[in-house]
Amino acid sequence: MFKKLRFQRYIFVFSIVLLTIVYGSTAMAVTTTAKPKPLSPQTFKPAGVQQIPFSRLDQGDVILLPAVLKIRYGQNVLDLPQGGNGVINIPENSNLIDSQGKVTVTIEYTLKNATTKRFSFNSLLRYNAVSITSDQVMFFSNRSKTITKTVKLQSTSDRKSIIIQGPVGISDDTHIIFFNAILWVRIYAL
């Protein structure tokens, strides 16, 4: 009987020690794991090449050339000049009109760097005081970039301004305006 009691104590102590070891090793594994470090992107820089920073944009550094906004809708093309007026007439049964009364058009314009500086900025297209699309533009000296976007313009009851604007210029606290004209997107009944 004494041996049986000693054997039970031995099993009890052994199980406590075993559980402590198992629990301790599990807890240690959880507490000792380190979070992996995020990988930082490394850029390749050839030896001896200096990275030239981008300049801040000022009025006249980047221009719209030619100063025309080309708007394609269906088989039609509207060339809207700087400061001009234009009308897009769409019949109400046209497949260019979505369920919310917006007309699908493709807008194209070309920005040209008129300097030898490097620029990086957002070009924003606005119609009826609403931002339609934004494009990241990067320029190197004396280069041009043609931007083509398919957008949806809201039909309106009157003429509204269509503007292409850039960032705030160095000289003043206003956005640089590359293009400004008046456009009327009109849906007419048959």
3D structure, described in words:
The structure is a single chain. By secondary structure, the protein is an alpha+beta fold. The protein folds into 2 domains: 1-33; 62-188, Sandwich (Immunoglobulin-like), CATH 2.60.40.10. 16% of the residues lie in helices and 46% in strands. It is elongated, with a radius of gyration of 33 Å. The longest helix is centred in the N-terminal third of the chain and has 31 residues, at 2-32. It has one helix spanning 2-32; strands at 62-64, 68-73, 76-81, 85-91, 102-113, 119-127, 130-139, 144-154, 160-168, 175-188.
Please outline what is shown here.
This protein is α+β, with helices and mostly antiparallel strands. It has one helix at residues 2-32; strands spanning 62-64, 68-73, 76-81, 85-91, 102-113, 119-127, 130-139, 144-154, 160-168, 175-188.
Strand content: over 45%
What is the fold-level CATH name, i.e. the topology of the largest domain? Answer: Immunoglobulin-like
Poorly predicted spans? none
Shape: elongated
Helicity level, as a percent range? 10-25%
- Spell out the CATH superfamily of the largest domain: Immunoglobulins
- Along the chain, the helix and strand elements come as HEEEEEEEEEE
CATH architecture of the largest domain: Sandwich
**What can be said about the biggest beta sheet?**
5 strands, antiparallel
Helical segment tally?
A: 1
Structural Rg? 33 Å
Q: From the helix content, strand content and strand pairing, which structural class follows?
A: alpha+beta
**The level-1 CATH class of the largest domain:** Mainly Beta
Query: How many strands in all?
Result: 10
How many structural units, i.e. domains? 2
